[in-house]
Amino acid sequence: MADTPRFNPKDPAHDPAEGEGPIPRQQTGEQQAEPDTGKPAVHPVDEKLPPLKMATTGLQHVAAMYAGVVAPPLIVGAAVGLSATELTFLTGACLFTAGLATFLQTLGLWNIGARLPFVNGVTFAGVAPMLAVVDSTDDKKDALPIIFGAVIVAGVLGFIGAPFFSKLVRFFPPVVTGTVITLIGVSLMPVAFGWAQGPSPDAPDFGSATNLGLAGITLLVVLLLRRFTSGFVKQIAVLLGLVIGTVIAIPFGATDFGPVAEADIIGFPTPFHFGPPQFALAAIISLCVVMVVSMTESTADMLALGEIVDKPADEKTIAAGLRADTLGSAISPIFNGFMCSAFAQNIGLVAMTRIRSRFVVAAGGGFLVLMGLCPIAASLIAVVPRPVLGGAGVVLFGSVAASGIQTLVKAGLEKDNNVLIVAVSLAVGIIPITAPEFYHAFPETAKIILDSGISTGCVAAVLLNLVFNHLGRGQGRDSDDVTAPMEPAADLPAHRQGAGAH
């Protein structure tokens, strides 16, 4: 990587509350002494904000990822046939374990945790195989213990393999990371559009003008706050947009306060509440595949977040982050939770607010633990209508894609090799979005990987980068600049026309 400007806390360009331009990059983990005091400068990732600011911005992270955390337990719990009380318990357990995993990732323990503003929660990649386990289990009461046993094994194996998996970071130059970051944002956009239409496709008002209007109003509020406010108010624009959107939704009957009235004040996720873990080979293999997919996406997410917060993730950071993911997954079933992974949507929040402190996200982890222990607190977030979340999601997920484009600008797209890498990788990555049934004829195990555009796009970018920029004659064409994606050789200057020949 090229040398980049170092962090200077007295430079207004580095103040998260000031300026509108992209955040300049810095040296990984490097501190520079202040000329007047001689004290080392604190990187924004390690900055501790005032308590009120930390709490509100942490709550903003929880609001952004809440729907993603509660969706898997609601879906799997319903398939198992849990009662409303048991379903609430399972959801609270997943919130609790998401908070523990977020603590591991942000605060760190020994060589565990990337120590970046990284939110962890239940990965949606495991929903399909978990439903397959439920369908193949004769006694549905055994389904959750079988799932929990498989997650524990997958987590332990992933923890052991994390240092080896992290060595793949050398295969992620800017042309690869930029492509993956862009794919993360693009892949998340359908989630925001789905939220904007309503809570359920089966509902009669799904996609109604009212729901889309609420999403549009929320988006407009966030944009207005970002445009016409400054400082702290500007930084919590998404949280304020969610609150204002929820209030506006009340007269339309889109805000349901029922969860608050029915929730208990205190509730602890009793270990192995649904029974001791059971270990079935088929379920273990299936969840191990999910773990590999999850680790691939987490690696891409860490690289993306490292670029956004100006603290590029190296091999050591990725290994520590993967250890947090996998250890969190291994511990989660003890408290009746599922496999944990990084939440890409929160990367968009970091990119948009420019608040890079990992302690802010740790505060969000504290809220998650609190909601797991206090169901009535969790229900307050559940009050936010799904269309309101959708309106805010457009900004959050779009910010991730924009960050990817910024990285691609630095990746040397004047080189025809890199143009081809980006073009094909993006095409492969958006297949699950544009053609959801494209892989319908493949085995279910293969579809777990193929239906993840982030994973397939990431693999395609890595392989193409190796082929075009590292193997054989690919290196010889690395300097072939283009002014258009597929510039004909005849259009090159005379002295360049034979550059690629050997």
UniProtKB/TrEMBL annotation:
The entry's keywords: Cell membrane, Membrane, Transmembrane, Transmembrane helix, Transport
Entry membrane topology: Multi-pass membrane protein
Family per similarity comment: Belongs to the nucleobase:cation symporter-2 (NCS2) (TC 2.A.40) family.
Protein name: Purine permease
Ranges of Basic and acidic residues composition bias in the record: 8-17
Transmembrane segments: 63-83, 89-110, 117-134, 146-165, 172-196, 208-225, 237-254, 274-293, 359-382, 388-408, 420-442, 448-468
Pfam families: Xan_ur_permease (PF00860)
Gene Ontology cellular component terms for the protein in this record: plasma membrane
Native species: Streptomyces odorifer
Main location: membrane
Signal peptide: none
One Gene Ontology molecular-function label: xanthine transmembrane transporter activity
InterPro entries, A to Z: NCS2, UacT-like, Xan_ur_permease
Region feature Disordered, mapped onto this chain: 1-47, 476-502
Lineage: Bacteria, Bacillati, Actinomycetota, Actinomycetes, Kitasatosporales
Localization per record: Cell membrane
Keyword Transport part of the UniProt annotation: yes
UniProt xrefs under PANTHER family: PURINE PERMEASE C1399.01C-RELATED, URIC ACID TRANSPORTER UACT
Tree of life domain: Bacteria
